[in-house]
Inverse folding.
């Protein structure tokens, strides 16, 4: 697992050390993330630039709140590509985002266990 | 303090809501800009708002524009939440009517500090509005009795006369003067005289309807405007007011002072379209007649009948024949 996919220190500061709130946010993320990821995948498949920008924007916001900076940066790149209709780069950028997301989801489970425990 | 949060993203909304509830705010959270505008536009809506920039239905700047279109309502302090950082974006956001912006993801301490800035602005606005209302009251009311002052009561009378002519109804002018008020001041002192004036104002107000007007016309002179008052009832109503004034002595700090008031009454319908100033002169003449008749009574001002009108005068309702 890559280190610092989620910056736990920053996340704790954001929730002002409220671990219950942190757990709630992680749960929301776990529920919401797959929906947006699937929508983004569809948008990339159909080269729907506007939809890519919208979904990537939503994912960027969620990931930023989670202090998941590498994934947030990858989502920001996709949003930028979508807004500029740079169709040729959609697939590569999405693959990169998906790879980072897999690492993130692994770390998320560890975090959940820590916060819940 | 009520605050509105508008953000379509659930995580962000939850984080904002919890952070602000812990800071003591009463939070309403909505998921799109249309709902935000609907919450902020009513008079009793929240006066502090955190608006995400990118939202479905209506974006943050769109909400700001809608809220700023309202007129004559309390100020709403709006902060845009944005991941947009370019100068052009910030300028566009502020141009839409936002007061401030905060870059996402936000730092909780910075968020609370910026909202405290908003609260300071809102408090300042509250104090300015209060001061303006005080000045408006002082400019329109008599300082001693808190009745309408002379300028305003004359303005109200003027408007009412125009309306009554247009609608062919009658406005009754009642000019009252406290009897022997100089001797009240001479005997009991000016502070007691002030108490008598204040109590007289209360009694006048208590004896008219909520939509009638009462103002201080001069030192111990008062002007009462009875709106849409049927001529047949005018004298009876004036005499009732006269009895209310004289009903019980005014209890001042040092003495119970008996008071009475004389009234000149004028019914606008009987005077065609004479200017207000002339009507007041005739009401004043009737007031003098009441003084001459022994005070504590009402005298009615009637137009001098032409020979052709004299016969018609005989058919007026009984209370109006003098």
């Amino acid at each position: 697992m890559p280190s610092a996919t989620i910056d736990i220190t920053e996340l704790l500061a954001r929730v002002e050390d409220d671990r219950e709130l942190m757990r709630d946010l992680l749960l929301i993320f776990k529920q919401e993330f797959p929906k947006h990821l699937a929508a983004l995948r569809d948008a990339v498949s159909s080269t729907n630039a506007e939809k890519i920008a919208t979904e990537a924007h939503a994912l960027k916001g969620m990931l930023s709140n989670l202090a998941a900076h590498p994934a947030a940066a990858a989502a920001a790149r996709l949003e930028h590509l979508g807004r500029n209709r740079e169709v040729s780069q959609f697939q590569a950028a999405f693959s990169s985002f998906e790879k980072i997301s897999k690492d993130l989801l692994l770390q998320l489970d560890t975090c959940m266990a820590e916060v819940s425990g | 303090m009520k605050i509105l949060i508008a953000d379509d993203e659930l995580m962000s909304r939850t984080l904002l809501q919890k952070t602000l509830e812990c800071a003591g705010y009463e939070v309403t959270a909505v998921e799109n800009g249309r709902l935000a505008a609907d919450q902020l536009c009513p008079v009793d809506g929240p006066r502090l708002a955190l608006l995400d920039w990118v939202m479905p239905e209506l974006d943050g700047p769109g909400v700001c524009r809608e809220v700023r279109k309202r007129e004559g309502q309390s100020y709403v302090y709006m902060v845009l939440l944005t991941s947009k950082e370019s100068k052009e974006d910030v300028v566009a956001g502020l141009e839409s009517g936002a007061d401030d912006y905060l870059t996402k993801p936000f730092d909780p301490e910075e968020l609370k500090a910026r909202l405290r800035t908003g609260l300071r602005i809102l408090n300042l606005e509250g104090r300015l509005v209060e001061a303006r209302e005080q000045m408006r009251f002082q400019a329109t009311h008599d300082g001693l009795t808190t009745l309408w002052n002379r300028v305003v009561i004359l303005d109200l009378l003027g408007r009412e006369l125009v309306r009554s002519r247009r609608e062919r109804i009658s406005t009754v002018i009642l000019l009252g003067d406290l009897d022997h008020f100089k001797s009240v001041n001479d005997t009991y002192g000016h502070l007691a005289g002030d108490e008598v004036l204040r109590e007289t104002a209360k009694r006048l107000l208590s004896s008219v309807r909520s939509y009638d007007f009462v103002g201080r016309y001069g030192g111990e002179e008062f002007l009462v405007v009875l709106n849409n008052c049927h001529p047949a009832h005018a004298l009876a109503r004036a005499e009732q007011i006269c009895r209310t004034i004289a009903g019980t002595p005014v209890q001042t700090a040092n003495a119970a002072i008996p008071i009475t008031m004389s009234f000149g009454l004028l019914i606008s319908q009987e005077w065609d379209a004479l200017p207000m100033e002339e009507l007041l002169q005739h009401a004043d003449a009737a007031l003098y007649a009441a003084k001459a008749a022994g005070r504590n009574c009402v005298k009615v001002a009637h137009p001098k009948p032409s020979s052709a009108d004299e016969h018609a005068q005989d058919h007026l309702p009984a209370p109006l024949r003098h």
Remarks:
- Chain B has two domains: 2-137, 150-320.
